[in-house]
Automatic annotation (TrEMBL):
Alphabetical list of InterPro entries matching this protein: 4Fe4S_Fe-S-bd, 4Fe4S_Fe_S_CS, Cyt_c_oxidase_cbb3_FixG, Electron_Trans/Redox, FixG_C, Ig-like_fold
Record-linked SUPFAM superfamilies: 4Fe-4S ferredoxins (SSF54862)
Protein's organism: Viridibacterium curvum
Record keywords: 4Fe-4S, Electron transport, Iron, Iron-sulfur, Membrane, Metal-binding, Transmembrane, Transmembrane helix, Transport
Gene that this sequence comes from: ccoG
Residue ranges crossing the lipid bilayer per the database entry: 52-72, 92-114, 171-189, 209-226, 353-372
Listed name of the protein: Cytochrome c oxidase accessory protein CcoG
Top-rank taxon, per record: Bacteria
Length: 484
């Protein structure tokens, strides 16, 4: 039978349709969905950007591992106490009602990320992202135990007791670091000294055990096992970074005009006469990349902007007595138009950068102003719904209210309460209450007004709260008084 079959259409004319043929696909050729992972063995590199990266590792981990141990006024300096539902950040005490400040802080973080990405690409990913930081730490342990890149590759291809011993030691050290990371994380949500006491006595609660294992386990998995897979396939930031990039964004660039055609040569050889560029095609830029990409192929979403390839290439250029900067931080416009540094800086302050900066500084200013003017005390008034109003002796109508007195300062304060809004309205009982530092107190108050003070219905009244500190402005909360 031929590969074509004759059919007739509605008007009786023949039409030709090609016969479908099924072409078998072998498993090796079926790579449309998943790519077989090839383990990346990043080569150690030194240089300016490597020093900056390790400086950020030290800085971020000193903050993370150290801040939970800092004392402040007899308590933990930084503590997001879930049981007490209070956040302590040195001299500030935040309550659930202060969630607005958290929302503003998240907005500031998002706009900062947008601004930094627009100006200088993925600096966050390359130098301060937890995935990058912990991968550096895990790689450092791996290098100490197993050796440099060549030794690690040789070890993975070997077998025997030596490989088992080295791998076991590496995994154990990874486990210790991950476990301590998980314990430190939980130590920000429950007092860390009490947490260590519970660990020593095997008295951890269920939620503490879960979060130590969860956070520590994911640290081990992502920084030790998955590594570049997280940046390449799991991180959403890699997918939408192009929205914030433009041709004036600083990125890791390979100067193709200068470097190509690539080719090996001896030092001192007249390579230009042979039609070669500055790139010696050594491949070191690929070997040092933590995600295993070749930056010479252009900007790729897997590039995290760590600049390891810049340090590596500069060292090769220096050995060959070539100018540095074959791979460098630059912009697409600068590489194409041969701009100098002054030209690049002049194009930093472009419209989108100015808009992001203006919005960011406005939000930061509002956030600082809000914290500076934030009252250290707060009062919430709730009308008792079980007893709306009742008549008591002496010709008075009584309403009951529940007052939530909150003291967010570090010293005890006396709340002096009064009520106004109706003629001869008064509090029945003690109008002064002492609230301890960083605590709250619930107070039930009875408010009475003469029957003739107002007509039947609801009427607005005001609770006025004065404090023993003249620098704290009085508080006024509105409520309603019901006349039956």
């Amino acid at each position: 039978m031929s590969d074509e079959q004759i059919e007739y259409n509605a008007v009786g004319k023949p039409k030709i349709r090609a016969k479908a043929r099924v072409v078998p696909i072998t498993p090796a050729e079926d790579d449309s969905l998943y790519e077989v992972r090839q383990k990346v063995y990043p080569r150690a590199v030194s240089g300016v950007f490597a020093n900056w990266r390790w400086a950020m590792v030290w800085l971020t981990q000193i903050v993370f591992y150290g801040f939970c141990w800092l004392p402040w006024n007899g308590r933990q300096g930084v503590l997001f106490h879930l049981a007490e539902r209070k956040f302590y950040i040195f001299g500030f005490v935040f309550w659930p009602q202060d969630v607005f400040y958290l929302a503003v802080l998240l907005i500031i973080s998002a706009y900062s990320l947008f601004l930094f990405t627009t100006v200088a690409g993925r600096l966050w990913c390359g130098f301060t992202c937890p995935q990058t930081v912990y991968t550096e730490m895990f790689l450092w342990i791996e290098k100490i135990v197993e050796g440099d890149r060549a030794k690690r590759m040789k070890l993975d291809q070997s077998g025997g007791a030596r490989k088992f011993g080295l791998k076991s030691l590496k995994y154990f050290l990874w486990f210790v670091l991950s476990a301590w990371t998980g314990i430190t994380f939980v130590g920000y949500f429950t007092p860390v000294q009490g947490l260590m006491h519970d660990i020593a006595n095997w008295q951890l609660s269920g939620w503490e055990i879960f979060w130590v294992l969860f956070y520590g386990g994911f640290t081990y998995l992502m920084a030790g096992v998955m590594r570049e897979q997280v940046c390449k396939y799991m991180c959403p930031y890699a997918r939408f970074q192009s929205v914030m990039f433009d041709q004036d964004t600083l990125i890791i660039t390979y100067d193709q005009e200068r470097g190509d055609p690539r080719g090996s040569r001896r030092k001192g050889e007249d390579y230009k006469a042979a039609g070669k560029g500055d790139c010696v095609d050594c491949g070191i830029c690929v070997q040092v990349c933590p995600t295993g990409i070749d930056i010479r192929n252009g900007l790729q979403y897997e590039c995290i902007g760590c600049a390891a390839c810049i340090d590596a290439c500069d060292q090769v250029m220096e050995k060959m007595d070539y100018p540095k900067g074959l791979i460098r931080y630059s912009t697409e416009n600068a590489v194409r138009k041969h701009w100098v540094r002054a030209d690049i800086l002049r194009h930093v302050m472009r419209p989108r950068v100015l808009i992001y900066s203006a919005i960011l500084w406005a939000i930061i200013g509002a956030f600082i102003w809000g914290l500076a003017t934030r009252s250290p005390v707060r009062v919430d008034v709730i009308k008792d719904r079980t007893t709306l109003a009742r008549e008591v002796e002496g010709g008075f109508i009584e309403n009951i209210y529940v007052l939530q007195l909150m003291n967010t300062s570090e010293i005890a304060r006396e709340f002096r309460i009064s009520v106004s809004g109706l003629s001869d309205i008064r509090l029945d009982g003690n109008a002064s209450q002492l609230v301890q530092a960083a605590s709250n107190r619930t107070l039930t108050v009875h408010v009475r007004a003469p029957v003739e003070a107002a007509e039947r219905g609801s009427h607005p009244i005001y609770f006025d709260v004065n404090l023993d500190d003249p620098e704290i402005r009085p508080l006024r909360e509105k409520s309603v008084f019901i006349m039956p």
